[in-house]
Design brief:
Oligomer: homodimer
Radius of gyration of chain A: 26 Å
Shape of chain A: globular
CATH architecture of the largest domain in chain A: Up-down Bundle
CATH topology of the largest domain in chain A: Butyryl-CoA Dehydrogenase, subunit A, domain 3
Number of domains of chain A: 3
Distance between the termini of chain A: 49 Å
CATH class of the largest domain in chain A: Mainly Alpha
Strand content of chain A: 5-15%
CATH superfamily of the largest domain in chain A: Butyryl-CoA Dehydrogenase, subunit A, domain 3
Chain lengths: 659, 659
């Protein structure tokens, strides 16, 4: 059992902020520092954005993106032979640090280097790499990632755009058959994209082979839209108005046979379709799987946005006074951060931001290992995909929630554009939707859990999954999950191990207790979802109805799974730290995060016999106590995020802290 | 006991939508219909807003506000002798219907007629009414309500602006002593306001008398800012950019003695301060109390904004299909609204919007009765103030929550400005802050609960309240609360009355069960807060610390109180309806709202022995079942809000529904 932190807790913590920043920055401190140094060079954009027209804003963002490209920060993930940095982990770290700055710059960077460049790199072969990558990395060739259509965003296997092979001319003919099959919300489409990676249903000699990706030119060098291509501006958006999103329709656009990004499938000159992956579904999901970096990047960006909001709100609360309480000098009003409620609003969110930071770091390392060939097994790849989907969902909801609470905690001043919340809120709002709708992503996670990441089931759709699970014994589903094995281990470790009372003896601040609770919840919810799916199918209902009824339960199981791996990531980091006040502080954050998570789901834990009403009340009390302990170090805890002062742009809120 | 709606529930409901609209519109159907007819005349503003410069937008909004004034819709609350409609309830109904349209128009309307006009009407006397009201009601004289300062938003008793009486010249001298004492976020200040009602610390012959209101000219007829007045534009805001918010500083601005709005206090020519209300605090809160209509109006506007979002999201989900599930025809994808999770996301929010609609209606009637002299007792006035504060908090948080969920439920399309979420989200964001920060408002409610609305304690600040409560026996606090008496009654009504088991026998859909649960929670939380305050003071801690520690508990008690009165309002309406499908539908909404509220706080109910784990699970299951019952009537339920089609502005989302 871990040492009881209560008794060991020093009365007054003295944090080493640069050292804490180093812990947060981890392996990629160097690139993070480099990007932090670059950010102030376009800090004025944060002000200018609200004065400029949409057109001007877009041009200015393009300039900045191209400058960033020149610095090398945006090309870290590409092979050195094409001008890249050859370090995938560093590329995510750079992206996440860029997220402290203007978010249109961030998203245009993501579109250009992550989505467009990433698709060429991952789905293409040497002929495409040689032809495009150097120009993409340098920012000379702007491009689009044209997957989403007006009619299909989540169910991209059902895209409407068609690519028909014409064996005679050895060309693909790209067509948009209906208005709803038009590509939509495509970044770089409305103004700057010269080519697009277009996802379309491939048809060869009358036979359909599912969705494949093609390089399709959109504009001539002078910017003129090419014949057969029709582009429409998506118009003003809630945020991210520095990114030129648009719609694209194709009318018989011909591209050479070589335009097919042919890493996973090809069409021979004479019109024979060849692929090493037989199943259409699995082939498509294999392609999608190579694009997982986008989700990893958005997750990390969501965490960064939350950090900016917390930095502003906590420093504001350390400056702003309201109402006399008799605590201070006579007639002096009390600091907002000294109010219990204010602490309750901000500190658990701060703790959760720390948790998702470290979870996002683990995810980034997984990505790095899988895509740098350090881990080559199929299971690592599947785990990565599931982890990326789940972390992206939780991190982007975190951003929405934290930014909103921080804005409210800054009152009317938080509403002025001169402070950063307006842009932060508007720009990040779409994070919960792009790179996969969060609920759909958690559904994917749930499916992976129930099918144990087995690659042979990766091409199952919802209905296939329902039928597959219904065909297994629930015990089989459960025994195959990794959490089941973990839970077995923890049962032995905890006092009262094996009995149903394993939770009652352990200390509230014992990480083993937290983990046991999170793991129990996960296993129980997965088992329950499997049981309900099975029962539904057995009772003769159709798979669609069964899925609709169990969907919420399945997503809850998925969420519990992701919460568990997030907590494990945080606990793992804290354990490894050398003793000292920084470790105490992170331990405090970790406890606060873990207990807040149990408190938020206390009803479920009680319903399932894992929490007594007394203990539930004790947890709520303990959270209040932890908040009071965080109070003196709250400023240091946000300063450790090291958001450059120029990026806070909150002069009215923070006074002398900003330039 | 009420009839069990399960057995009585008809298999297929057929709603009479116009009749349901009539139920929602209530007594003020006429003015609501009139405003609904006016709204489309400026529907183009919704489109134009994102194309226009901030300056153009402001001018266009001014035009519309003046047109609305011409129609009589905005002056409903003023006395007929000054060009008003003489119907306070109708004025709130008109305002809430205006909230279906552009929200800059709404807020400028609120500033001009509610805040500025309201202050002249409520705080002034005949000399002010005669001089200003007709021009205010007609929209000829634009003005400001200059209360909030950069340094003080919530604690307005501590405002810094000074008004010193100069007996020699019989003038008040208005001064801003520090930068932070500048008036801030003041609507109509940056461009259109010619005069302002300025709240300032009155000093007469060296003696301070607390905050009073003065009519102070800001601009000459040609718009030139007058000498001694300095005005700064607040600049771009997250939303509401059609309203010209600004900052105002005064440097020795002289106004005649008659500029004091002297309903509650006056200064005689020779410089004697006179007031019928002795206590400075109570005098100030009496003044503030007359301005309660602003909170009532914002509450109703928040509900309206939620209705617009739900109308769009539910109709989108009735059109949008994604993923094949095998439920429909072969190859057909499933409607979003047929997914269990989608129902779970939208329907409890729809039910809560209904609940807050009716709660806001009851509040409006209370306002009408108190301000039309129908109820003249002091207690009615205190109850109104508390109800207004609490309903405003819940209704505006509802708006933030509902709009966010609806945006996410509409995916990427919800992010385009061409649909309404961008403006809805940005414009309503400040609703949780203006007219009182929601947490501070709930604190006021909590204070009222603990002091039983007793007028003799209305001038207590936080510390005074802590000391007052600490001086009472907890039983005394409890017995004085209205919920205590209610709970006594309900105990007798319910099966097992009097025992601790009163809740286990009753049906899940019995409104008496719901009400008993809500009342129990309220009483228990109030008692707990009182006990903790008492214990803290008894233990020797200073009142400020005690308050900080109990603050969250107190706010929770306040919230429970407001939740109870919201539910009572809803149950009250449903009970009175004639039998029929509409009644069934509203009953369904009411049950869904009540049970969702219990589910959201299930941990608390279990902790306090009022919910068994079995019953808690049963409630969750029942909510799923209710959602499935709502599914076929969901479209009708939002159509009953009768948001004019032109206001939905969601052509991309709703297709043929919009023009």
């Amino acid at each position: 059992m871990a040492e009881d932190p209560i008794t060991a807790f020093p009365p007054q913590l003295s944090l080493d902020v640069p050292e804490l920043t180093a812990v947060l920055d981890g392996r990629h401190a160097e690139i993070r520092t480099a990007v932090r140094t670059l950010l102030p060079s376009y800090a004025s954009l944060l002000d200018d954005a609200e004065r400029m027209s949409r057109g001007e804003y877009r041009e200015r963002v393009l300039e900045v993106v191209q400058e960033m490209a020149g610095s090398g920060a945006t090309g870290m993930g590409f092979p050195p032979e094409h001008g890249g940095g050859g370090d995938i982990g560093a590329s995510v770290a750079a992206f996440s640090t860029l997220a402290y700055g203007d978010l249109s710059v961030l998203v245009k960077t993501g579109v250009q280097f992550g989505l467009f460049g990433g698709a060429i790199l991952q789905l293409g072969t040497e002929r495409h790499h040689g032809a495009y990558l150097a120009d993409i990395v340098s920012g000379r060739l702007l491009g689009c990632f044209a997957m989403t259509e007006t009619g299909h965003g989540s169910n991209v296997q059902a895209l409407g755009t068609r690519a028909t092979y014409d064996a005679e001319t050895r060309e693909f003919v790209i067509d948009t058959p209906t208005v709803d099959a038009g590509k939509d919300y495509i970044g770089n489409a409305a103004a700057h994209g010269r080519v697009a990676v277009v996802f379309a249903q491939l048809e060869v000699a009358g036979e359909g082979h599912g969705v494949h990706a093609f390089v399709v030119p959109l504009r001539a060098e002078d910017g003129t839209v090419l014949p057969g291509v029709r582009i429409e501006d998506d118009g003003p958006k809630m945020g991210l108005n520095g990114v030129d999103n648009g719609r694209i329709w194709f009318d018989g656009v011909r591209v050479p046979r070589e335009a097919l990004l042919n890493r996973f499938a090809d069409v021979t000159e004479d019109g024979t379709y060849v692929s090493e992956i037989e199943s259409q579904g699995r082939r498509f999901f294999t392609m999608l799987g190579t694009l997982v970096q986008g989700r990893v990047s958005v997750a990390s960006a969501g965490v960064s946005a939350a950090k900016v909001a917390l930095t502003i709100a906590i420093h504001y609360a350390l400056r702003r006074r309201q109402f006399e309480t008799g605590n201070g000098e006579d007639g002096e009003e009390q600091l907002l951060l000294d109010y219990g409620l204010h602490q309750r609003r901000l500190f658990p969110r701060l703790a959760r931001t720390y948790a998702l930071h470290f979870a996002s770091e683990v995810l980034t390392e997984d990505l790095h290992d899988v895509f740098s060939g350090i881990r080559t097994d199929e299971e690592s790849r599947r785990l990565l995909e599931s982890r990326a989907a789940g972390t992206k969902a939780l991190a982007t909801w975190l951003a929405t929630d934290v930014i909103q609470e921080c804005r409210e905690a800054c009152g009317g001043a938080g509403y002025l554009s001169a402070n950063r919340f307006a842009a932060l809120k508007a720009d990040t709002d779409i994070f919960t939707t792009f790179e996969g709708d969060n609920h759909v992503l958690l559904q994917l996670v749930g499916k992976s859990l129930l099918t144990d990441y087995a690659s042979e089931f990766s091409d199952l759709d919802q209905l296939g999954m329902v039928r597959f699970v219904a065909g297994l014994a629930v015990e089989t589903v459960l025994e195959r999950t990794s959490v089941h094995k973990l839970l077995e281990q923890i049962r032995d470790v905890l006092p009262g191990g094996g009995s149903d009372e394993w939770h009652t003896d352990s200390g509230l601040l014992d990480p083993d207790y937290h983990l046991a609770m999170y793991r129990f919840r996960e296993e129980h919810l997965i088992g329950g979802a499997a049981r309900r799916l099975k029962r539904g199918v057995d009772s003769g209902a159709n798979a669609g109805e069964v899925f609709s009824e169990v969907q919420e339960h399945l997503i809850r199981a998925a969420r519990a799974h992701v919460e568990r791996i997030v907590l494990e990531a945080f606990v793992g980091v804290v354990e490894k730290l050398p003793d000292g006040d920084n470790k105490f502080a992170l331990n405090l954050m970790c406890d606060l995060h873990a207990l807040s998570g149990i408190e938020a789901d206390a009803a479920w834990f009680m319903e399932h016999g894992r929490l007594t009403t007394q203990r539930s009340k004790a947890i709520t009390k303990e959270i209040g106590e932890l908040c009071r302990r965080v109070r003196p170090i709250a400023g240091d805890l946000v300063d450790a995020f090291a958001v450059p002062t120029e990026m806070l742009r909150a002069s009215a809120l923070l006074g002398e802290r900003t330039a």
